[in-house]
Amino acid sequence: TGKTRVITYRIAHLINSGVPAERILAVTFTNKAAGEMRRRIEELAPGKGALVWAHTFHAFACRVLRAHHQLLNLNRYFTIYDQSDQKRLVAESMKELGLIDQTNKASMYVSLISRAKDDLLDAQSYAIYAATSPDASRQTAARIYVAYQKKLDMAGALDFGDLLLKTCVLLKEHQSIREYYQDYFLHLLVDEYQDTNHAQYVLTKT
User: Which of 44, 61, 112, 130 could form a disulfide with 163 if both were Cys (CB 3.0 to 4.6 A apart)?
Assistant: First the structure.
């Protein structure tokens, strides 16, 4: 773990020491940081640096899910919904649940669902958790989450939270896939590791 510059120099050192570039995984948080990382690695290890798996957490997860989509009954070419898509789908779910007067809170529920997924709570798990809570707003949120997730599934789409959550599920439930990646990557480098959320932490440790 470390800062971007430290990581890129370490990756270049590993490559120049004989480690196959394609068996190095480096993850960071933003597309800008990932792009800068790839640029620096290629400068330091011309011709080989481009083979390094240097991605954001979400891009890495997306790459893994597309490679093993059938194990989770996903379309290989699943669409990834951004925040505006999420807000639209949450608002539609709220209307169907008779919560038309609360659709101005759609952004709040998008954030809540995203946080739940960051904590690796799928819709069913969150509903069970909410059912034991005396807080009626949690139960409302759970209903919205379940309806929202059904719409996502019907559209063959994933949101950003799904990318990490479903990758964690894939690695947890399919030992052969988990062991393949554990054996394949000889080095894992994480930029700004202290900023990882629970899903990112679990993905890194797995």
Answer: 61
